[in-house]
Amino acid sequence: MSSTGDKMKGNLNEAAGKAKQGLGEATDNERMKGEGQRQEVKGDAQQVKGEAKDTVKKGVDRA
User: Fold this and answer.
1) How many domains would you assign to the chain?
2) C-beta atoms surrounding 31 within 10 Å
3) pLDDT (tens digit, 9 = 90+) per residue, 24-41?
4) Biased composition, Basic and acidic residues: where in the chain (predicted)?
């Protein structure tokens, strides 16, 4: 997957995770809050992966 794709998936996962956390908070559902937190962390990791790919590509382009 491209770096842009990783970043986009990361943003979507973060947004979905935050929504799940909010819904879990509103309904007092600990399981949903936990799922939301995990999904948000997954989104963060995907964004970091995309940034790393960009960094590597820029380094290769300069070489």
Assistant:
1) 1
2) 9
3) 999 999 999 999 999 999
4) 28-43, 50-63
